[in-house]
Amino acid sequence: MAWSEQDDDARGEKIVKKTWHFYFQISLLILSGLILAAYSFLFTGEGIFGATPKNSGKNAISLESSELENLKNEIITPKEWISKTKHRLFLSEKYLYFPDKNEIKKEDEKVMVGPFPLGWLQKYDLPILDLTVATQDPDGDGFTNIMEYHSEKPEEGTNPIDPQSHAPYISALRVKEVKTTKIEYKFTTRQKLEGIDVYSVLVEKGEERNSFMRKQGEKIGGFEIVGFTPKKTIKKSASTGSEEEVDVSELEVVNKELEMTTVLVQGEAKNIPEIHATFVLALVNRLDQPFPAERGKSFDLMGEKYRIIDASGVGVKVKKVDSTEEYLIPNLSADDLRQLPAKVEKK
């Protein structure tokens, strides 16, 4: 049987195909072996045929089982990528745009957003981009966010989202109006009646004049006489220019309601005025609720009692009842009103 040229070509093609299949199968077998060896070593610490033989070479690296375990865990659970900044992987850092100043600033907890550090607003989840955030009162305690931030702990403030956390109410008290009425007390004479010292005191209030004769322990307009000290001094006469002896005895009086002790010098008038004040709490929804108070009577402020001590051009001094604490209550100012919402009626 004779072979043709076509038969030779077909035979050669079959040989090539068998050779290619052979090498492909050998490659798969080797690759499978390598994968199996790697898997066995990583997850069991041993080779395919048992424990990994020790390396007796001088430069051999010894790995403890704990180190292998750590390496295995790092492969199974890769470490989380942690940035040195606050932005995430492949994302830009955050920036803030301030339209009122046309400024762009990198987000940082210390950057100021209006009167607040950004970190303080973020801590309480307050609206950073709201221009009215300073005068908002999210917890409804009457103290706005700016008041809470500038409370008695400036480094941390009070909690603007907790109605129980705020500055004392006395810190928000303001004087809306104050009126003083001049009252002069003048100790004039001392005389004895039936062996008992009696003191004459003239009291002038406007056009009204009254003279009182009282013994020690008795009162004159709320002041109790508690002591007398006889004194004399030498003074130059205004009319003659000569020196003469003058009686400057002292009458000590006490007003327990005012917690005031004063001394009336004989012949000298002393002004102890009546003080009437109108107070208001500079808080949200409280400006339209003023209340009166007068010296000599206590007034209530959210469950605490106070008394008026004195008044001046800058405010009214008050004292907490049954305490030594004193406070100067300032007059209501434009700064107080700026810390309140615009919708509140500002009288």
Could you give a short description of this structure?
The protein has helices spanning 5-44, 65-76, 118-123, 145-149, 334-338, and strands at residues 95-98, 103-106, 112-113, 116-117, 173-181, 183-193, 196-205, 208-214, 219-220, 223-229, 232-236, 243-247, 250-255, 260-265, 269-271, 274-281, 291-294, 298-301, 304-312, 315-320, 326-330. The chain is an alpha+beta fold and 347 residues long.
Task: Please describe what this structure looks like.
The protein contains five helices and 21 strands. It has 347 residues and is an alpha+beta fold. Among the domains are: 102-167, no CATH class; 172-179 and 274-338, no CATH class; 183-271, no CATH class. A four-stranded antiparallel beta sheet has the order 8-7-6-15, with no helix packed on it. The protein has a four-stranded antiparallel beta sheet with strand order 9-10-13-14, with no helix packed on it. It has a four-stranded antiparallel beta sheet with strand order 18-19-20-21, with no helix packed on it. The chain starts with a helix and ends in a 9-residue tail after the last helix.
